[in-house]
Design a protein that fits this description.
Layout: E1 3-6, E2 9-16, E3 21-25, H1 36-44, E4 48-52, H2 69-82, E5 88-93, H3 95-107, E6 111-117, H4 126-142, H5 145-155, H6 158-163, H7 165-177, H8 180-191, E7 207-212, H9 220-229, E8 234-238, H10 245-248, H11 250-262
Parallel strand pairs: 3-4, 3-5, 5-6, 6-7, 7-8
Antiparallel strand pairs: 1-2, 2-4
Helix pairs in contact: 2-3, 4-8, 5-7
Amino acid sequence: MTTVTLGDITIGYDDKGSGPPLVLIHGHPFDRSMWTPQVEAFTAHGWRVIAPDLRGYGQSTVVPGTTRLGDFARDIAALLDRLGVDGFVLGGLSMGGQIAMECYRLFGERIHGLVLADTFAAAETDEGKAWRNALADRLLHEGMAPYASEVLPKMMAPHNVAAQPAVAAHVLRMMRAAPATGAAAALRGRAERPDYVPLLPTIAVPTLVVVGSDDEYTPVADAEILQGGIPDATMVVIEGAGHLPNLERPAEFNKAVTHFLTHLPTLH
């Protein structure tokens, strides 16, 4: 268990391995343990892997109200400053991918490569804003357990829920353990997120877009928008995976990311 106090919050994080830094940002409503297969794989390939718990999740401080993507991004920058990390490769899944885009918007000069997994760039619609705020209210009222059971077959492809009970149990455990106050604050912040579509053509670092073929939340069409908008981005579709290909198909996910990391011109 590693934590660090940054200003008025405490951040839990893993920092393992040695070599060029790779920072991984988890999605909602998870924690850094979602990256366990990747921490093991990429440290074995000579990377220093840093995986924080976002504020409101895991071992990090729960902050009520509204947590905007910029708040998460600045926390990550502060953590990396404390760890003495200047340049790094940045990966994120779902909300973590949107936070990665916000990081690029705020301090892109520090980022040498991007991995955007199962995420999308567009701003929220009015309907989406209403849905996210209503869900935030529901989580505060009901807690996380009913929601977690409801969305499990959307977070993972339904056939993987049945075929991979240990993975399904891990995903369910992360969602149930997420503090409702933190999850609600993130939902309210995501409702107000900026439109990252205009940012995409300005991304001047190698970028890998990854998506599960059976992802209901961010389907392949959303990944194609990212690939088409980012100059020279490459895309890998992980067959048979839903919204969490890093857990549902870790070997395939790790192979795609390792190939990307191995061919980066910087940091090696």
